[in-house]
């Protein structure tokens, strides 16, 4: 596996692959890779002749006071894991490659509607940063397909919408959320948890499971949102939201709508903010 920081070198290699009739899969990441990322890579590997992963901690998707500075940066470890997972190129650009005029002066992509709710409401500007960097990465890598995790459900929807709206020639695919044995969704941010918090953290997933079960038994989504929030509060979380939404567009379901829904949660546990979701179908 090659590690490339330079955009021109990346393009030259990709051009060579294309000339040889090979297609390209892409897995964008912020590094500190775990089994969840590797499963996305495996998916790309199964669908593409060549696979590129990027590691870039994108400054524009972090708000003031968020964890940009302390976000774990573990490039050497990531390189080893990616090589083992069959990645062809690790693209690890400098900030100046993605933001030649500086992050604050960058062109910015705003995906309306979908980004005004849930994570977008609690992290203003976050999805502008995500959409912008993903569009820039797509432009540099020029992949045929790109794989994103379902754990960041709203992010996935935002990227799908952006790709469709801008007619970008990239097939967006998604990989299932990988969980630790006790149900906690894998995330680079889990390592911020203290031992006590880590023991409590799986209650997010058990709350989602219980919510789905009660929904299947016929309870209303509004009552279940309240019940799930109260359950998390009792367990010591500070929920930003627990929301049952239409999976397709994250809109609130109609009163009798029972199909195609997903429950999404964001909650703080001490200094760590965790997100998770569970589709009902
Ligand atoms: O999901 C992530 O790791 C990031 O949001 C992404 C898609 C790599 C953009 O920085």
The proportion of residues forming helix, as a percent range, comes to 25-40%
What is the highest CATH level, the class of the largest domain?
A: Alpha Beta
What binds here, in terms of ligands, is: pantoate
**Strand ordering within the main sheet:** 1-4-3-2-5-6
Task: Give the tally of structural domains.
Answer: 2
In the CATH classification, which architecture of the largest domain applies? 3-Layer(aba) Sandwich
| Net shape | globular
Number of strands: 9
Strand content: 15-25%
- Detail the poorly predicted runs: none
SSE order, one letter for each helix or strand: EHEHEHEHHHEHEHHHEEE
Q: Report the average pLDDT across residues.
A: 98
Q: Major sheet, described briefly?
A: 6 strands, parallel
Number of helices: 10
- The fourth-level CATH homologous superfamily of the largest domain is HUPs
> Over all CA atoms, what is the radius of gyration?
19 Å
Structural overview:
The chain is α/β, with parallel strands linked by helices and 281 residues long. It has 2 domains: 2-175, 3-Layer(aba) Sandwich (Rossmann fold), CATH 3.40.50; 188-279, Pantoate-beta-alanine ligase, C-terminal domain (Pantoate--beta-alanine Ligase, Chain: A,domain 2). The chain is 38% helix and 19% strand. The protein has 10 helices and 9 strands. It has helices at residues 7-19, 35-47, 75-84, 95-98, 119-122, 126-141, 153-165, 195-200, 203-216, 221-234; strands spanning 2-4, 24-29, 50-55, 89-91, 145-149, 171-175, 238-246, 261-269, 272-279. A 6-stranded parallel β-sheet has the order 1-4-3-2-5-6, with helices on both faces. Strands 7-8-9 form a 3-stranded antiparallel β-sheet, with helices on one face. The protein is globular and about 55 Å long. The model has no long low-confidence stretch (mean pLDDT 98). Pantoate binds at residues 28-30, 58, 61, 130, 133-134, 152, 155.
């Amino acid at each position: 596996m090659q590690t490339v920081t330079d955009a021109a070198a990346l393009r030259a290699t990709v051009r060579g692959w294309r000339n040889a009739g090979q297609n390209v899969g892409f897995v964008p990441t912020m590094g500190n890779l775990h089994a969840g990322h590797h499963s996305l890579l495996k998916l790309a590997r199964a669908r593409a002749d060549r696979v590129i992963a990027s590691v870039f901690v994108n400054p524009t998707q972090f708000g003031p006071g968020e964890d940009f500075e302390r976000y774990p940066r573990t490039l050497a470890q990531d390189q080893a894991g990616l090589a083992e997972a069959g990645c062809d190129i690790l693209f690890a650009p400098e900030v100046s490659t993605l933001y030649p005029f500086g992050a604050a002066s960058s062109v910015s992509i705003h995906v309306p509607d979908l980004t005004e709710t849930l994570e977008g409401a609690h992290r203003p500007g976050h999805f502008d940063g995500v959409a912008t960097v993903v569009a820039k990465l797509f432009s540099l890598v020029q992949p045929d397909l790109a794989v994103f995790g379902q754990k960041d459900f709203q992010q996935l929807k935002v990227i799908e919408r952006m790709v469709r709206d801008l007619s970008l020639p990239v097939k967006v695919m998604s990989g299932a959320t990988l969980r630790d044995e006790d149900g906690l969704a894998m995330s680079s941010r889990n390592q911020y948890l203290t031992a006590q918090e880590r023991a409590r953290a799986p209650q997010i997933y058990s709350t989602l499971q219980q919510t789905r079960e009660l929904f299947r038994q016929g309870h209303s989504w509004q009552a279940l949102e309240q019940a799930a929030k109260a359950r998390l509060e009792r367990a010591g979380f500070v929920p930003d939201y627990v929301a049952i939404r239409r999976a397709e567009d994250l809109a609130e379901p109609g009163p009798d709508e029972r199909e195609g829904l997903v429950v999404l949660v964001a909650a703080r546990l001490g200094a760590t903010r965790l997100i998770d979701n569970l589709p009902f179908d």
